[in-house]
Amino acid sequence: MRQPQHLHPVEPARAPNVDLEAEADLARCGALKDYWYVACLSTELKAGAPLARTLFGTGVVLFRDAHGRPTALRDRCLHRNARLSRGAVFDGRLGCPYHGWVYDASGAVVEVPSLGPSQRSELLDADACAREGLQPEPCKLGQLQHFPTVEQDGLVFVFMGGPDASRARAEPFRVPYWGHAGWTVYFMVTRFPNGVTNLVENFMDVPHTLFVHPGWFRKPASKRVPATVRRTAGSVLVTYKQEQDTVTGLGRLFNPSGLPLLHTDKYYVPNVTRVDYLWGDHGFVINSQCTPVGPTDSLVYTAISYRLPVDVPGALVGRALKPLVRWYTRQVIQQDVVIMGIQREGLLDGPGGGVYSGTEADLHHADIEAYRCWLREGGHGAGPEEAEREMAFWI
Ligand code: FES
Ligand SMILES: [Fe+2]
């Protein structure tokens, strides 16, 4: 019997370019976890209050120890697994909300209220406790998983790759122009409904600005923009040849005298982008550090650093303009949140999500994926080889 013919040829299955599930799973993300990730702003971590975060699908509780240093522990009580971040911090120690077990900053159990003042089992001796699988005193109860932390440039970083932070494959990323005279720096924290690969690609993507931010960055110019893409040592640097480009919106504020524009976009493995719009020694820099919460859920810490062409000592004019600049950048980021949600909808719509197509204009996206894929698979060897290529797109 003749088999019915397919009207359309069946496309060969292609592997997804981006595996969001694996990338955000601590057990399957390979070497992606071996870097420092921002857990919160320094100002979000108040003395005396725990803070809940999720990184790579893993609950982490942060608090400040008796010296004010940030501490990060697994957010799950050893006793009956209650969320410790719902408890209380006192004297730099963390108390569980359920039965009051107390943990010190290293994650050791230091007090069990139900053991009373002696803090020892009263009826059962050590042998009987061992037979029942119980512990006679707090110090025998073991230790919560502890994650190394670093506080730097107004950010608290956590290392999820194990207890030994010397294994980190890079230092925590420095916020551009943090503490530099004449520069104003502020942070924005944004929850994005998408995974880190798609976010860093979005932050490095110029063609979308015409569609997602119409009139907010630049007007459609029917102009060809050549660029150089350089992939080297865990970074992807895109240098645009658009010296005469005019940036609309707040761009005019930064370049009243029409100086040539130096526009570069840079990606640093595994989760950081830095976008520079500089005219001489002033302009603005947008630095985004993405923290994976789950497969399509991320927290992005954006540092906006800017310097006006003319200012008085102390960058008083720049600082006075901060509410306006903050409002502008919040609008633009919110437009990206919406488009990332729209991309997510398509991604999750049945099989085939994560299989991407591209043209010359997506050359740097392929470089980002090459690095992240290499790290997800363990990051062995030297990684994607160095390359420098020309690309072009129209805006
Ligand atoms: S669940 Fe934490 S003390 Fe009981
Ligand atoms: Fe955007």
TrEMBL record:
The keyword Iron applies. Signal peptide: none annotated. One of its GO terms (molecular function) is dioxygenase activity. PANTHER family: 3-KETOSTEROID-9-ALPHA-MONOOXYGENASE, OXYGENASE COMPONENT, IRON-SULFUR DOMAIN CONTAINING PROTEIN. InterPro entries: Cholesterol_7-desaturase, Rieske_2Fe-2S, Rieske_2Fe-2S_sf. Keywords: 2Fe-2S, Dioxygenase, Iron, Iron-sulfur, Metal-binding, Oxidoreductase. This is Aromatic ring-hydroxylating dioxygenase subunit alpha. Residues 37-117 form the Rieske domain. The keyword Ubl conjugation does not apply. It holds the Pfam family Rieske.
